[in-house]
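Re: beginner question about structure tokens

> Can someone show what the tokenized structure looks like for a real chain? I only ever see the sequence side.

Sure, here's an example I had lying around. Input first:
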Amino acid sequence: GPTTIVVPDLVGRPVSEATQLLRQVGLVVGEIRGPGLADASAVVQSQVPNAGNQVSAGTKVDLVTGGRTP
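And the corresponding structure tokens:
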């Protein structure tokens, strides 16, 4: 059957690191929205689907970012 992948926990990671991690495990970055996107230090505040969910390879993971971590 199709390959299932456990969604990694991306919350608290910089967007650049999160997108790299998703590609490594075989998932796709979906919509990224939120403040601070122009800033390389924007970090992931939430994600859909959540970490730990089992999804098929190639599933899009949407990210919501926040600004710089204090």
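Each token stands for a local structural state, so reading them left to right follows the chain. The radius of gyration is 12 Å.
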